[in-house]
Every structure is written in C-alpha cells, then in structure tokens.
Design goal:
Layout: H1 2-15, E1 28-33, E2 39-47, E3 50-57, E4 63-64, E5 69-71, E6 74-81, E7 93-102, E8 105-112, E9 119-125, E10 144-145, E11 155-157, E12 166-169, E13 172-175, E14 191-193, E15 200-207, E16 216-220, E17 224-228, E18 262-269, E19 272-277, E20 280-287, E21 307-308, E22 315-324
Antiparallel strand pairs: 1-2, 1-9, 2-3, 3-4, 5-6, 6-7, 7-8, 8-9, 10-22, 11-14, 12-13, 13-22, 14-21, 15-18, 15-22, 16-17, 16-21, 18-19, 19-20
Length: 329
C-alpha cells in the first residue's frame, strides 16, 4: 500500500512540474554549416514539457519548425528544400532531417525522401546571449579605412564562381547588376573584406539607383545583415531600411528617396546592435539572437569580415570606416 502511495505521489508531482526532468542535450542554440556550405541557425527551447524549434536555413528569416519529433538528445523533422538558383519550375526536394547532440557538437543527417542517399553536416552549440552592454563605457580604437577610393584593395568576392559586378568609379565602390527582383539568390557575387573583426563601430554611406526597387545588405562579421534599401523601395526586405534582416525591426523608416546618399553608423558589441540611419537611431543596443539569412557563417564566437550583398540590385558605397572595440574597454 505504501509503495502504491509513493508511486502516486511521484506521478502527480511530475505532472505538476515539481520533479525536474533530466536535461535534454538538444536544447539550446546551434550554428549549422549546411551541405551547400551555407549558414544555418537552430534554436531549440523547452518550456515545461513542450519543446519548440526555430530554424534559419541558408536564406530568409528564422521560422518555427512544425511537426518535430524530439527524443533524448535528438530532433527530427521533414523539410522541403530548393536548390540555390534552381529554375522556378523545378520543385523542391523533401528531406528527412535528423539531428543528434553530443556535448557541443550536433551531428545531422538529411535523407531525400523516400529512400535517397543521406548527406551529413554538423552544428556547433552557441553560447547564451551576453548581458546588454553599457555602450557609454565601450572604448573604440583608431579608425580603419576599409575602402581606399581607388581600387578593390583589401576586398575580394566571396564566391569567384559568380559574376563580379564590383568596381571602383569616381571614388565610389559600385556594384552593377541587372537584377531587379527580390529573389533569395542571384548570379552576381557578394564582396567581403580580407580582414576579419571582432566588435566594432562601422560608418559608411550608400546609394541605390532611382527607377528600381533597390536592395542590398551589410553583414557585420559576416553574420548579421543590416538591410540596405531606400525609403520607398518595393524591396523592403522583411523589416525595411536599417533593419537587422528578419531579426530586428527598426523603430521607424528613416530612409531617403532612391538616388540620394544615405549614412549608417552601426555598432556591434557583445551580440547587441545599434543602428543610426541618416542621423536617426532606429535600433538601440538590441540583442541579435543568431545569424541572418544569407550569412557567410553562423558561429557567433568567431571573428568575421564586413560583407556586402551584391547578388541583389545595383548599389554604391563610399567612406567605409571601421573603429574596432579596444580590448581594454
């Protein structure tokens, strides 16, 4: 009788959440290096007995995963995936994706349905978000001029197999491309600095041509895209000019009309971003949970380049200056 009573008490306490379940290794945030060498981000949360997952796969914004299966250290789901630059008439392939956590490593297998050959890729556990930094106490180093106004010295295209639309004309870094739509992929190359950086404050100016939608982006450390578009563009991205794409919506649309030069001051410290667009602070020291679509990489612990999006519409940049955060801040 006493044994039955103890079992009843244990079951009722567990149902009420008073007995902690063993931790599941799969819970947490993960950077993904996808089979295409593109970046991905996975965030798995547990609230009581419920487990939810949010995934950013290469491009676009992070979105909730539906109909997931969660086990001890594992996550499984089915996803339809299109090839990069696939023709519109080509249908997506459905994959069964299984992920298994072991410590800080996530081993992933994706198998085309119903019985295709599996492909493996890896993920890395990411650290929790740091506290909001006190920017009044942050010290910046001497300014580093990233664009010399003469040539592409210090820069290179990220994918030499793509078309290079980047050149320097009249002291302006210009990207020329015929693309006028907002498709996720394009045939023209993105441009990155040779140098890589930790935290910093970045200043630059950009201009988008009149007569087209106008869309580009500035990736901070190759991770987080700050949206480059103009006030009235039909290609506002997900959140408009000055947004951290798919992650943070600016407080207002502070963009100028197409054809005018616009200015950015962007500060990245401890995974928190501040964006001043045309003198108007539109993002104020806000946390960025993970990499954004189109990122060069997804590991938030690693330094990275300044990375300019060239595979969308034509765009121009000038006066690109970076001040790194000093180690003694």
């Amino acid at each position: 009788m006493r044994v039955r009573t103890l079992i009843f008490i244990f079951v009722m306490a567990a149902a009420a959440g008073r007995i902690a379940a063993a931790p599941n290794e799969i819970i947490g945030q993960w950077s993904l290096t996808l089979p295409t060498d593109e970046a991905g981000w996975l965030n798995i949360r547990q609230n009581g007995g419920a487990v939810t997952a949010e995934l950013m796969w290469a491009v676009g914004a992070a979105r909730p995963l539906e109909r997931i299966e969660v086990g001890d250290g594992t996550l499984s789901f089915t996803r339809a995936i299109r090839r990069p630059l696939a023709p519109k008439e080509e249908s997506a392939t459905r994959y069964r994706i299984t992920m298994r956590a072991k410590g800080d490593v996530l081993r992933c297998t994706m198998r085309p349905e119903p019985d295709g050959k599996p492909v493996e890729f890896l993920g890395k556990r990411q650290p929790p978000m740091p506290p909001r930094p006190d920017l009044s106490r942050v010290k910046f180093g001497e300014p580093v001029t990233l664009f010399n106004g003469r040539d592409l010295g210090g820069w290179r295209v990220s994918n030499p197999a793509k078309r290079n639309g980047w050149s320097v004309r009249d002291g302006i870094l210009s990207n020329d491309t015929p693309k006028t739509d907002f498709g996720s992929y394009g045939e023209y190359a993105n441009l990155r600095t040779d140098a890589e950086f930790e935290d910093f404050q970045l200043q630059l100016e950009y201009r988008l041509p009149a007569g087209v939608g106008g869309n580009s982006g500035i990736y901070l450390r190759g991770l987080y895209e700050v949206q480059v578009t103009h006030r009235d563009s039909k290609m506002q991205g997900i959140n408009g000019p000055g947004a951290v794409f798919g992650r943070i919506t600016p407080s207002r649309n502070a963009g100028k009309p197409a054809g005018e030069w616009e200015s950015f001051q962007i500060t990245l410290v401890d995974r928190h971003v501040t964006v001043v667009l045309n003198g108007d602070k539109v993002i104020d020291n806000a946390p960025v949970e993970g990499c954004t679509g189109g990122a060069l990489k997804s590991d938030v612990t690693a330094p990275g380049p300044i990375y300019l999006q060239g595979d969308h519409t034509a765009v121009q940049y000038r006066n690109i200056v970076l001040r790194p955060v000093r180690p003694d801040r």
